[in-house]
Prior knowledge:
- By secondary structure, the protein is mostly helical.
- It has one domain.
- It is built from two helices and no strands.
- It starts with a helix and ends with a helix.
Amino acid sequence: MHKKLLFLLYFIQVSQAQKLKELKELSLPTVAEELRQQSFWRSFLSCKTYVLTP
């Protein structure tokens, strides 16, 4: 369970890093939307952390 979770978090981080590399080719509204989604993921993960920790 924990290994799957860690892999999922790692996968999210890698995909976010990949998206950040592509941001310079995107328009500003898309960048703003991307940042909004990232902050959503951060708040989502932080509020779920206490549930995931044993």
